[in-house]
């Protein structure tokens, strides 16, 4: 079957069993982050209740951490603790998706559990009511060839240069729209705060926006949206590439731009606060870059709508800057800033925590998180699709 056929085949019976009665039971899909950072894992369990009303209805669970690069075989049980749940758009009914964080037997967080660090930061800055909106870019890849290639790339060659693909319409330049649409609907059904989506500059590249959300909710919703995208891609016979520079050369990379505001930046005189935040981010540029994803130097080259990784910059409506001040913010004298440095493979818990901590608290509260994340990056095994 050709990729084009696969992309139109969704709905031909995949969910024909979803309306069968469950006799008072529900299915809970427990979801967590594996040991490589973007290898999202999940497994199902039956709960003998008609509906989940609160986290109290969801028991802790465990899994084999030796199979997820998070434990040794002689002591492999990792604890799953439910943190938030959403309606399941695949099983429908009262079935739920349960986002969990992960804990070692000694009570310490696993190598990819950065939610606990993020929650500490968000609690400490709660008075400033930080709002976040993340723009998650990704590239859809074909599964019917090896090595896998982006949708829109012909066998053994390259498509036309960038230009016609951004916000494009038509089969010759928009590749994978059905996948994007299915993902969009799944997010809305599940209550994910998805605010929009569009095709991007690179062929087969798309973006979805999550937010605005306050505090820890941003990371929860981004991770669940990523999970839903991976599930949708399964049904269309495609894969999702989260790499920040999937194809080397004059092709755009993938980012996860972070829009950020606080009660102070949204108030009268907020532009002065934004400039103070920018100066703090300048002082901690390398510190933030450390936490903004893997292989970001490949993407932040100073070309293809990126800043240079070694130089901090900012400007109004400047998509080649580290920090972009939207024109509407500059005109009104209040609003938000956009940090364009985070990579598509970054952890939203880490990015949002660093951004809030550096801007509001001068970076005093994330040293342990920074060090843990650096240790993770130095040990992570690559994800091959």
Q: Would you write up a description of this structure?
A:
- The chain folds into 2 domains: 17-110, Roll (Ubiquitin-like (UB roll)), CATH 3.10.20.70; 122-379, Glutamine synthetase/guanido kinase, catalytic domain (Creatine Kinase, Chain A, domain 2), CATH 3.30.590.10.
- It is globular, with a radius of gyration of 21 Å.
- The chain has 385 residues and is of the alpha+beta class.
- The chain has helices spanning 3-7, 115-124, 177-190, 217-235, 263-266, 270-283, 285-290, 296-299, 327-332, 348-361, 367-379; strands at 26-33, 40-47, 61-64, 77-87, 96-103, 131-142, 194-199, 205-214, 238-241, 256-261, 314-316, 323-325, 337-339.
- The chain starts with a helix and ends in a 6-residue tail after the last helix.
- This is Glutamine synthetase.
- Belongs to the glutamine synthetase family.
- Its EC number is 6.3.1.2.
- Residues 114-385 form the GS catalytic domain.
What is this structure's SSE topology?
Layout: H1 3-7, E1 26-33, E2 40-47, E3 61-64, E4 77-87, E5 96-103, H2 115-124, E6 131-142, H3 177-190, E7 194-199, E8 205-214, H4 217-235, E9 238-241, E10 256-261, H5 263-266, H6 270-283, H7 285-290, H8 296-299, E11 314-316, E12 323-325, H9 327-332, E13 337-339, H10 348-361, H11 367-379
Quick synopsis:
With 385 residues, the protein is an alpha+beta fold. 28% of the residues lie in helices and 22% in strands. It has 11 helices and 13 strands.
Structural descriptors:
Gln_synth_cat_dom, EC 6.3.1.2, Gln_synt_N, 5-stranded mixed β-sheet, 28% helix, Creatine Kinase, Chain A, domain 2, 13 strands, disordered N terminus, Ubiquitin-like (UB roll), 385 residues, ATP binding, 22% strand, alpha+beta
